[in-house]
Each structure stands twice: as structure tokens, then as C-alpha cells.
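Supplementary Note 3. Input sequence used for the single-chain structure prediction.
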Amino acid sequence: TSSSRAPGTRAIHHGADDNASGTSLLLDVARRLSKLPEKPSRNIVFMAFGAEELGALGSRHWVEHPPVPVTSIVAMINADMVGRMRERTLVVDGVSTAAAWNDLLQKANEGLSLNLKLGAEGFGASDHASFTAARVPVAFLFTGVHDDYHLPSDTAEKIDVGGIDLAATLAARLADAVAQRPERLVFVDPPAADPHRGGGS
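The predicted structure, written as C-alpha cells, is reproduced below.
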């Protein structure tokens, strides 16, 4: 593919972590929330975007042609590469885009004891950036880059299924808390990106 780190190699790029792991988390969160005894006060929309590596084409198109006004969107939670958790560590970026994220994340993490690495940046190389640009608060879940990134060797046996389960638990709690919260999250402009920081997917 055009985004392969093995140019000229004709081989299946399985994409188990990037981003079948995020799709798995999305489906698991949907399953969990569908079993709640009462529906959340706000609608929760589940989306899987395409063409992120080509310039976030899918998410950008959705934001530019939304089925509901963008101003009605309370928050966007993004999971991109959540399949290689190490030492119970989960990166959550974009937390500076709303003051409430810190408290919501700490409550969602109760009993999970995840090592949350909170980052301020609301942009970066994933689909949440399209929503940050539209002034929607974002939380980006990510377990980190690895040597198999964008290579045929990103295969299923290397996925930490238990880690995805932990991240899905946190994401489901976070989505439910945002949906049940009486007040909307208030968007805050994130700080400028650090050009020396490593990227996501």
C-alpha cells in the first residue's frame, strides 16, 4: 500500500493493531452500551472511518458533511492502535480540549488501575484531528507505536486481547459518562503540537 513502511513489498498488510484493534474496541464498546438497563441521555454514534493515512479523508468528509450539526456533537472518543498495551499503560491524548476530561478519565479508570498517560494535544495523526479542527472535544486512546507499524508483520497473534478489553472498559465508561453528564463538555483550544514528538497511526 502507499502507506507501507516496506515499499515495493507485495504482501498482505494485516493491520491487526492498525487498526483492527480500534475496530474491535468500537464493536466491544457498542456491545457493552447496548446492554445498559437504561439508554444514555444523549445519543452515541459509532463510526469507523477509512482513508486516515491519506489525509483523514473519511473523518474529514463526515465533519464537513455531518448528518447532524457539528455544534450538537458533545465529544469524540477515538481508538487507533490499542492492541499492544504494555504494563497496563494507555495513552489518552487530546485531554486539553475540554477541562472535564481529566476527572472523567480518572473516574472511568476506577478499579482498572490503568497507567494513563495523558497528553494535551488534540491534533496528531488520527481521525480525532478532524473533530478537533471542528472544535469538538476529543479523547484519543492509543497503546503506542511498535516495529510492526505499517508492515506485513502487524499480525493477530501479537495483539494483547486483554489490553483491548481494558481499553474498551475505560472507553465504554467514558462514553457513558459523557452521554449522561448534564452539562456539555466545553471545547478548549489545545496547545500547539510539539514538532519533535512521535506520531500515532
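Confidence is low (pLDDT under 50) at residues 195-199. The longest helix spans residues 161-180.
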